[in-house]
Design a protein that fits this description.
alpha/beta, binds magnesium ion, Aldolase/citrate-lyase_domain (chains A, B, C, D, E, F), globular, 13 helices, TIM Barrel, 8-stranded parallel beta barrel, 52% helix, Pyrv/PenolPyrv_kinase-like_dom (chains A, B, C, D, E, F), homohexamer, metal-binding (chains A, B, C, D, E, F)
Chain lengths: 264, 264, 264, 264, 264, 264
């Protein structure tokens, strides 16, 4: 069991650039599922509200179940749902990933919801976060803008064009690249191809821009091998397949092993 | 997508002895989780209410989500909770696994709750089951005792001693051996060792007694390889690890692959 | 909106024999559904936990939603689940219907769970019931055995044989006849026929025995017409079809009307 | 039980104009309720999140329970909640109805969220939809813009004025007229009168504009008879009363029948 | 038990200015919790969706549980989530508190969602509200703009500057001052200090402006004493600490009393 | 934040007799409520399933939310629901309180469900408990009978008579006295009077018998002062009022303070 200190040092770890972090990615809205997956050697957990089925009620307890296993829990919000970003931070999320941040104004709206003044306009009310961190209200106010992360997704042509300006928006801590949507965008809807050389070129460009801006870079990898490649490209935080991918590959392996032994 | 016919032919498949079936085993009480896991090549799904966290409300929709993927869904009830056995059949379960059936009277109470007269005293009210099977009320009444399964767990010394009599109880369709509890029982609480030669001896004895009684035999295997061995022993229906085992092994593989590629 | 007084006078109304009551019967475990159905001219609402999907959490709020509409809410428990009987009364249920009360000992166990000493051994803790009735703790203790009802289902051959003795058990306030199960029992599983002359004969016999014992009689009718006949037989409390029957007949009528007008 | 093919042919059926479809309309957020209502002869099911109580978690399983009964399930989103539109499609919805589409920019925002590039900017992640349709990821991407429907509600004066332009927005597949809000708007809040000649005039105008634009037209009818009239006006998809209307009319009929027989 | 009349007279009470009202404030999303707290001498209940964990499903039943205890229930929505404002009114909320209303356009969007034409554009569908109030549809339409409240939060520098104009927006019934956010804003994020003389000055100014505009004024007080001071300042509706504050202070008192007696 | 070690040392603390422990007592089935209350200086948390509204699903996450705050969480089961006792231990409960243990056979059934062989027949499957404690399966099996507590409630005349024999049953770790039910039982239902001299006499007798048997004694106190008295009598573990008592007294104090200041 890892203590609160480890969890709450997460922001420093991801910013330090000292080694790639691997996170779980969970769309199934079950708090116990989070606790089980958090037993494995993940550095963090992401609850996906955009393509997954979490809502604020399940996420608030899911965040707790991940922290109980010693892991920081982030959440990806639905497109443009910045009100939920604030609510998830109140519930103890260590960071928010916002999809489809395609412009400076998107980024500003995101930072406004996730950072207290003077950076943004996040509203006060972090009752659960204070429970979980053990900080006083004053300590929480003084440190939250630093300790909780606002991570902007870059996954469209418009976002690529605006990437430098987005990274310059005060309050944006890092970026998260979505290769699937990027590949659909780059092909004008013709294909889903997140692992091509074309996409890799974009990824390398973006991680270089992160370095230039002193921001960290995150990315979705569709499985373990791809995650390893993305770490080699230089990403600070990678996904090694979503929950359903890991669940189903584990099940498929078990079935295959059973049939192989049966046939032996 | 498999149709209702396949699902509702499950009882005939397991009774036919024509080849071992492999089932998923789910303790995490999330209906969508069921749907995802049911996409893999499982012959059935078991929702575990004894050591898992399902209740009647989540199970009723979980059964539907498994059937939606074309798979029959069974449920294991908590110890002695025969009232739930009836409720789960009403909700469309294809069979009930009852833990700790240690005596003829346990088996009779189980059959009483799961079989309509004259075999038992199951009470009428299968509204969801009728929705799901497309049968008329009269057809359902005429076929349910045959089409839905009552499966008695053998997992204590007392149950081993009474196994022949339990299999003779009218309405008991098959047995399910629990090697973990059996190993704890056989060692008087000293060890959890479900995969020893001693346990294998018991398993072989029990599957032979199944054959003698014309009943089918099911068993829990803690992973794919073990499931394969259990199929070779002759079991008709095996588990290849629980949901958390498959989920976590899939995740562990992904993390290991990522770290391996990263280090390459 | 009917006030608490009306709700809490329910026990007196059903005991008075002054006119047949009609109750809704709900298996779908949704509190808002209760509130909608309770707007119609029902005298009471029954939440069915035996063949329906209610659990204690949904039922506790469902009871409130029915009371909010001015209606007393009863609950049918799963077979033998007398622990839930107490919990439902704590949550404000106006009565409990227990299925498959086949013997004096079944009836005694039921009364033990639902009546405070000296009649039974119901345990103290009616926090929500006290909220809802506005009684003090002392008032609640003094009146609960009278104001909340224990209703035993008679629906097997054994129960028919024991009906007189069951009605004599202290704490049993009335009976509820289940014609579906009764018809299955009387035919040894051959048919579901709740509306035959044979069943009617049994119903008339039972309502006569109720009169003899000074108990009230309840019965399930599968639709409105049948409910009317059962009222004429003399039952004090009847069901006019379950929720799904009423929902689906309302929907079927609407579809039929639409197609008729469309074709006109 | 209808197979997946029928469900997924829904878009072609509604576009074909070959006969009016009748859909259920459900605001009560219970997945089992969906399954029960879907047994009746509806061509589709709509889950109402605007005036009903569905959220993403209940809707995701509700969609499954409708599909399990062989019916396509659509959802109406809250006003302007286009992020939920994408999430519902990911969960397997066959179409989205968006209320209060009053301008071209409203329509464009709606299409952006529900159609993949190059039409819109729907983000990739249809895990459940892929489970339910049995399509590969590539097949889903290639067909989703055609097979899932974006339906714009016309229910204000502004929307009436902009109706032609709204129908011209790429990605808008059809319209859905809301006569209740329309009548309130046309009377400046003075009355709720969805079934007047004035409203009928608007409806006829709108269905004519649909024909001109090659779009389909949907409309809410408050009961079966009204639905039939709306079909005669030429609508392709009509509602024959909401869930509560059908439920309560079914219950009222049963009570009335019971009292009539009782008094006979 | 207070009847529906009292609940539905709430708008007149708060507008009358005849005496300060004290409301509960609940972030824990449990309907039964609402019922328990509503037993105390509160004039109203607020469910907090901005910093609390309510969603529409829990709030719809929570509103019912508060009304069941005879209390009007209001809700605070997440920032900018005006679609939920309409849904909560449909579910029977007596008013909506919208956070971060910083401009006339914010206020107009809020009024548009909560008031029927001609004031706003609230969409028709108050099924539960009609159940709870016992009004006919026509009566509800005629009275809802008056009987349900739109309350704008003033809690930033921008909002202070625009306060007069915000109060002039048609449909805005009153304001609610958030001293915590206000203190953070006024200190540019340096401190959380809701109870200072500087804040009190602002509060007095705002309540004077309320009087000038004929609007009522509400405010959050972090405990009972502070609530009393705020009533003396002239607020019409005050909070005397959130649910967790009251819960924890009650628990802390009990522990302290136990330890004191133990040590005596 | 207290670590896992403290939580899992709870059994040793309560057995040591070195000072009275005070526990929270929660009937409201909300996991976040647990987390908030666990912030106060309680030594443990009890989730009440007998008179409270917890079920296995909410309790499994509630246990986690209490542990997240560094507190051991116990659960009281419904009367006779020993199957749930096992499930709650699997979910990480530190102990089970069983109501109405009136005889040696009740106590034996309770111990059978909560202790592994050779003491009892608890079935293997503590997946969440292993997550939470960080023990290996072998370690958990070796220590669980010692580290998790089976606590028998003594609250009827029969239980008083059998108290010595109940305490001698192997596997029963301690007793929990229920003064409310005891007072009802002793008065044959005439009064609820948990704090009388007569009850105190019984409590002193029982704590003396605990000492004689080397068992620990627990008791329910209806508020803080009473809890202090019970600690002085010598109880090892006391309740200082239920959740609703603490919540409502905290709220009542706040309202009173507000009205006092307002009137000053
Ligand atoms: Mg994306
Ligand atoms: Mg076992
Ligand atoms: Mg029956
Ligand atoms: Mg409308
Ligand atoms: Mg604020
Ligand atoms: Mg007790």
């Amino acid at each position: 069991m890892t203590g609160a200190t480890t969890i709450d040092g997460f922001a420093r770890r991801i910013r330090s650039g000292g080694g790639g972090l691997i996170s779980a990615w969970i769309g199934i809205p079950d708090p116990l599922f989070v606790n089980h997956l958090a037993q494995e050697a993940f550095d963090a957990i992401v609850l996906d509200m955009q393509h997954g089925v979490w809502d604020i009620g399940s996420a608030a307890v899911g965040i707790g179940q991940g922290r109980l296993a010693g892991k920081p829990v982030l959440a990806r919000i639905p497109v443009g749902d910045f009100a939920s970003a604030s609510r998830l931070l109140d519930a103890g999320a260590s960071g928010i990933i916002a999809p489809m941040i395609n412009s400076v104004s998107d980024a500003e709206a995101f930072a406004k919801a996730t950072k207290y003044p003077p950076v943004g306009e996040r509203s006060w009310g972090p009752t659960l976060a204070i429970n979980h961190t053990g900080l006083s209200a004053a300590e929480y106010l003084a440190t939250a803008n630093e300790e909780t992360l606002a991570i902007a997704m870059i996954e469209t042509r418009a976002a690529l064009d605006a990437a430098d300006e987005i990274m310059r928006v005060e309050g944006i801590d890092g970026i998260f690249v979505g290769p699937s949507d990027l590949s659909i965008a780059l092909s004008d809807g013709a294909k889903l191809a997140p692992d091509t050389a074309e996409v890799d070129g974009v990824l390398k460009h973006l991680i270089a821009r992160c370095r230039a801006h002193g921001k960290f870079g995150c990315v979705f990898g569709s499985n373990g091998e791809r995650a390893g490649e993305l770490l080699k490209i230089g990403f600070d935080f990678v996904i090694a397949g979503a929950d359903t991918q890991q669940l189903r590959s584990g099940a498929a392996s078990a079935i295959a092993a059973a049939r192989r032994v049966q046939a032996s």
